[in-house]
């Protein structure tokens, strides 16, 4: 039983074919990939994840299950370690059952946005700690959005959701249960979905077909992948034994079977190749260098920091702290110099004022002295004059003074 599982993993999962550079780096400690799935109840989320990763991540919700209930959308996280050619992938799937279920779906995206943001926040907080060695990266690398196979076009809730999420996460819109539509219906449905996506300027994840460094085969492969977006997929957890004895994942119908892996009937194979084999690193890279960067810039701006990205190619909190300290020092020095200049000026002003008042005092003193001298002189002159005119008092004079009784 376990031998079969191991063989299946080797043959099908394929992330050990990761680009060499990353492969070598990741081989020891393994690497993380975090996938979020969003879509209404019973649309086929759990089935597709189990089909994609050849493992029963759902529904065994045991140890590593975290559930949050918020505004009707329940967010559940499940992790599994998948081994492929001795490369370990820690796959985390974040499931959001309950999305779009209630009658009033206004804001049903809020708990999903909050979940994505809180993962960015946690990464940012760890990055801001000066020791980086143990960063736990829980950021969402890709979000598979399940479009209901109505055959019409995108519904309002799809548009609202995609519009709000495309700046935060790599969006991979897919049409689920593709077996419920005919291939002609699918062609028209895909065209209308793409027209809606472009009319609303929604960014979805697309493999590049213009990279000069890619070889021709890769470019051809990417073009092929691009032509199938949005992927119409079929999922199944059941295996069917073919006449040659091989076991394949398939869905059974009264008239026969459809193999999940059959490119003639659906795009499951292309989706899996893109997600796991060819573009897992692109998804992680875009999340880190574009989506997270944007989030971080906005967060730092909100906190009042300004970052000149032309100077800091990579975010380095130690460098920023050093830069901040330098700026702060320069500011202090400038302030000190200004204060010194003002002080000097005040001292000079005070000194000159003192000198001035001293001079004033002196001149006033001189004036006063002069006028006092003058007064003294005048008084002396008067005294001399009085003394000169003075005569002794005679008795006659006394008798002359008769008064009332002398009359
Ligand atoms: N016809 C068809 N049925 C499918 C397909 N994928 C899944 N189903 C069926 O749809 C039903 C719901 O599938 P799940 O994978 O449990 O759906 P889900 O989105 O995880 O549902 P919740 O967890 O309840 O939100 C099951 O009966 C599946 O067998 C498909 O590709 N085609
Ligand atoms: Mg489910």
From TrEMBL:
UniProt GO BP? mitotic cytokinesis
**CDD domains per record:** CDC_Septin (cd01850)
Q: Name one GO molecular function term.
A: GTP binding
Q: Which GO terms describe its cellular component?
A: cleavage apparatus septin structure; septin complex
Annotated signal peptide? none
Region (Disordered) residue ranges read 383-407
UniProt KW GTP-binding keyword: yes
Q: Which UniProt keywords apply?
A: Cell cycle, Cell division, Coiled coil, GTP-binding, Nucleotide-binding
Q: Does the keyword Nucleotidyltransferase apply?
A: no
Which InterPro entries does the entry mention? G_SEPTIN_dom, P-loop_NTPase, Septin
The record places domain Septin-type G at: 29-302
One Pfam family this sequence matches: Septin
What PANTHER family does this protein map onto? Answer: SEPTIN
Family assignment from sequence similarity? Belongs to the TRAFAC class TrmE-Era-EngA-EngB-Septin-like GTPase superfamily. Septin GTPase family.
Instruction: Name the chain's protein.
Output: Cell division control protein 3
């Amino acid at each position: 039983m376990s031998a079969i599982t191991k063989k299946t993993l080797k043959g099908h999962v394929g992330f050990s074919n990761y680009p060499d550079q990353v492969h070598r780096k990741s081989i020891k400690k393994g690497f993380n990939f975090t996938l979020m799935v969003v879509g209404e109840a019973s649309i086929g989320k759990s089935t597709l994840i189990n089909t994609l990763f050849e493992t029963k991540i759902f529904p065994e919700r045991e140890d590593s299950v975290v559930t949050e209930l918020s505004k009707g959308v329940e967010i559940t996280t499940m992790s599994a370690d998948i081994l492929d050619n001795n490369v370990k992938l820690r796959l985390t799937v974040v499931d959001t059952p309950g999305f779009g279920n209630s009658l009033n779906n206004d804001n049903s995206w809020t708990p999903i946005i909050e979940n994505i943001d809180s993962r960015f926040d946690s990464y940012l907080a760890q990055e801001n700690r000066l020791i980086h060695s143990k960063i736990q990266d829980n950021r969402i690398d890709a979000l598979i959005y399940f479009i209901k196979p109505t055959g019409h076009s995108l519904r309002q809730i799809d548009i609202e959701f995609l519009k709000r999420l495309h700046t935060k996460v790599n969006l991979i819109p897919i049409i689920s249960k593709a077996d419920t539509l005919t291939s002609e219906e699918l062609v028209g449905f895909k065209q209308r979905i793409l027209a809606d996506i472009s009319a609303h300027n929604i960014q979805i994840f697309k493999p590049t077909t213009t990279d000069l460094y890619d070889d021709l085969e890769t470019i051809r492969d990417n073009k092929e992948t691009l032509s199938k977006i949005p992927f119409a997929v079929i999922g199944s957890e059941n295996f069917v034994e073919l006449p040659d004895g091989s076991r394949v994942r398939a869905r059974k119908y009264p008239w026969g079977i459809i193999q999940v892996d059959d490119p003639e009937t659906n795009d499951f194979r292309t989706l899996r190749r893109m997600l796991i084999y060819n573009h897992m690193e692109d998804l992680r890279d875009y999340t880190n260098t574009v989506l997270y960067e944007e989030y971080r810039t906005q967060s730092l701006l909100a906190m009042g920091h300004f970052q000149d990205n032309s100077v800091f190619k990579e975010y380095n909190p130690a460098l920023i702290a050093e830069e901040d300290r330098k700026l702060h020092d320069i500011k202090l020095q400038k302030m000190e110099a200004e204060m010194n200049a003002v002080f000097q000026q005040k001292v000079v002003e005070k000194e000159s004022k003192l000198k001035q008042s001293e001079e004033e005092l002196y001149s006033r003193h001189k004036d006063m002295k002069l006028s006092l001298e003058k007064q003294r002189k005048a008084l002396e002159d008067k005294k001399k004059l009085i003394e000169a005119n003075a005569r002794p008092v005679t008795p006659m004079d006394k008798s002359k003074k008769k008064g009332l009784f002398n009359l």
